[in-house]
């Protein structure tokens, strides 16, 4: 059974309008978030979780200041109308921290920008997406910085 809508002289009554507004708001919220998940994990490493503040983002492996081990492959996506690169990378950093990583190397970060796709996504389609793929890394020589970033000491 769905909600009852009342019509008075062909117009929606106040209760029905409020219900429609609340439903539309919830619908928009569900389409705005980013989703990140771990595609593959290095089973040889078991690390304690860190915090997202301790996970810097490197644009290439050449930028990483220390030797490192690859911990996991992480992918993330979000609707590009409502999600910026920062939102996607924040989601990647959070996932990386959950597996004990203290850095991520971005493999790719892209978005579809076709006007038709963006307009479609704005009205509820899932066409325009922002996607990221990153390698979560652990740098054994960087543990002091991680401790300071996560505990404030």
Structure notes:
The protein has 153 residues and is of the alpha+beta class. Helices cover 33% and strands 29% of the residues. It has helices at residues 14-32, 85-98, 115-122, 143-151, and strands at 7-8, 11-12, 34-41, 57-58, 69-79, 103-111, 129-138. The termini are far apart. Residues 23-31 and 115-122 have low confidence and may be disordered.
Order of helices and strands: EEHEEEHEHEH
- Beta percentage is 25-35%
Fraction of residues in helix: 25-40%
Instruction: Write out the CATH superfamily name of the largest domain.
Output: Hypothetical protein apc22750. Chain B
Q: How many separate structural domains? A: 2
Number of H- or I-type helical stretches: 4
Q: How confident overall, as mean pLDDT?
A: 76
At the first level of CATH, the class of the largest domain is Alpha Beta
Question: What fold name goes in the CATH topology slot of the largest domain?
Answer: Translation Initiation Factor IF3
How many beta-strand runs?
7
Helix/sheet category: alpha+beta
Strands of the widest sheet, in order across it, are 3-5-7-6-4
Quickly give the CATH architecture of the largest domain. 2-Layer Sandwich
Question: Span between N and C termini?
Answer: 56 Å
Global shape: globular
Features:
alpha+beta; Translation Initiation Factor IF3; 2 domains; five-stranded mixed sheet; two-stranded antiparallel ribbon; 7 strands
Concise synopsis of the structure shown:
With 153 residues, this protein is of the alpha+beta class.
List the helices and strands and how they pair.
Elements: E1 7-8, E2 11-12, H1 14-32, E3 34-41, E4 57-58, E5 69-79, H2 85-98, E6 103-111, H3 115-122, E7 129-138, H4 143-151
Parallel strand pairs: 4-6
Antiparallel strand pairs: 1-2, 3-5, 5-7, 6-7
């Amino acid at each position: 059974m769905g909600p009852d809508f009342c019509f008075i002289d062909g117009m929606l009554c106040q209760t029905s309008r409020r219900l429609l507004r609340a439903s539309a708001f919830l619908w928009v919220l569900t389409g705005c978030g980013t989703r990140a998940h771990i595609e593959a994990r290095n089973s040889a490493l078991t690390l304690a979780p860190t915090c997202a503040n301790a996970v810097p983002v490197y644009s290439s492996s050449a930028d990483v200041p220390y030797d490192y081990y690859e911990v996991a492959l992480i992918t993330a996506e979000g609707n590009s109308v409502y999600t910026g690169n920062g939102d996607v990378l924040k989601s990647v950093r959070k996932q990386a921290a959950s597996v004990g990583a203290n850095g991520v190397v971005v493999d790719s970060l892209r978005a579809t920008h076709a006007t038709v796709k963006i307009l479609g996504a704005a009205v509820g389609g899932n066409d325009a997406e922002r996607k990221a793929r990153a390698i979560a890394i652990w740098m054994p020589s960087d543990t002091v910085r991680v401790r300071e970033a996560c505990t404030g000491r």
